[in-house]
Amino acid sequence: MQKAYDNIHSIAGPILIVDGVSGAKYEELVEVTMADGTIKMGKVLEVNRDRAMVQMFESTQGLSTTGLKAKFLGKVATLGMSTDMLGRVFDGAGKPIDGGAEVLAEKHIDISGQAINPFSRNFPSDFIQTGVSSLDVMNTLVRGQKLPVFSGSGLPHAELATQIARQAKVNDGSEFAVVFGAMGVTFEEAMFFQKEFESTGAIEKAALFINTAADPVVERIAIPRMALSYAEYLAFEKDMHVLVVLTDMTNYAEALREVSAARKEVPGRRGYPGYLYTDLSTIYERAGRIKGSNGSVTQMPILSMPEDDITHPVPDLTGYITEGQFVLDRTLHQKQISPPVDVLKSLSRLAGAGMGEGKTRDDHSKLKDQLSACYARGKDVRELAVVLGESSLSDVDKIYLKFATEFEKQFIGQGYYTDRNIIDSLDLGWELLRPFPVTELKRINQKTIDKFHPDHKKK
User: Fold this and answer.
1) pLDDT tens, 88-138?
2) Of 140, 234, 337, 421, which is the most exposed, with the fewest CB atoms less than 10 Å away?
3) SS3 per residue for 336-374
4) Distance CA 177, CA 220 (A)
5) Measuring CA to CA, which residue among 247, 233, 81 is closest to residue 180?
6) Residues 6+ apart with CB under 8 A from 266
7) Cβ distance 374 to 437 under 8 Å?
8) Closest Cα to residue 87, out of 203, 230, 165?
9) Cα–Cα separations (whole angstroms), residue 213 to 184, 187, 247, 296
């Protein structure tokens, strides 16, 4: 039986303290009635004997404890699921904000979810083509992987996020969908995301969950769980392959810090709660493949690094949990290379599982290694040329110097509206290697050179 309590002890930020409560449960929904009859919603964050801590979904600014009543509803927050949600845009409460009708749910699912049991996991495998050469060739994304994007303030991670979400596909004919979650973004960014999906038609295979900086903090915390719950529904009940793009996880962590401060918890590193690692893992570990299911959930969380500090708690802990990182570089951005991806700092630990089968996998891997080696040496030669002058370089060094420049312009800097399939990206890599003498291609065997090199293909 639902019971209303009027003994609200205090209000601190988004937190209400209710005394004399019996039978309250963690995550239980609470209906708070104002003195004027207005109803606002919240959820139970913590229960200590007969005292419940309630986190409000809306701002508590201007509220007084006088006249407030809290009713505990005995149920948790759920999201109505349906394949009809594809092509739609929702807010942090799961309500449509695209002007369309309410979704007729096939079932309701608790958005809290849980990490996939390791015993039930299948190893991530099979390629997801994003159309971005620096990702597909150099840091291959596979189904069931979690591969974060590390960005800096002011870098174009929003443009990269929409490009990946627009262009991502699987090449074996399986059903594919994108779930896009935006947290704490500006109104302009929210409009950009929505217009990009709608203008390109990518909205047809996508569902968007958007929370702006002006929306309640609690919705910022709910967005990734809501997006992942829907992705799990599509993957494990509808056998679809789903890519979940979450931006910006740093805003999510800031929301956690705000709530933690309101709860008067002892802070950890840089004021973030001590359980930040655990909390992030409950999100990231929901990616994967499950035995007995044909579907998969793949995650690409995007996070901005304050002051480009990769040791900041959010990227640092994210790196421990996930399987690599895709790093954006400020120097490349200043040179107008877009997307400004630092392929040498980027890494996909599961890339081998997505690089084709057998010999094809070996050929892709060797080309990737050779491109990385040539680019690394080219950057070293560039620094040397600044000190000694280009005239002091050997003929081979000049080839490396030119390669580094062309690799950045053509291969990395493809722009945000160029969709390259994997074959085109591999062919471009081979074309860029054409000026090198075969003796410099030390990461590739002669058989592979004879098969793919533009000047050495056997007729």
Assistant:
1) 999 888 889 888 888 888 888 888 887 888 889 999 888 899 999 999 999
2) 421
3) CCCCCECCCCCEECCHHHHCCCHHHHHHHHHHHHHHHHH
4) 22
5) 247
6) 274
7) no
8) 203
9) 4, 8, 13, 31
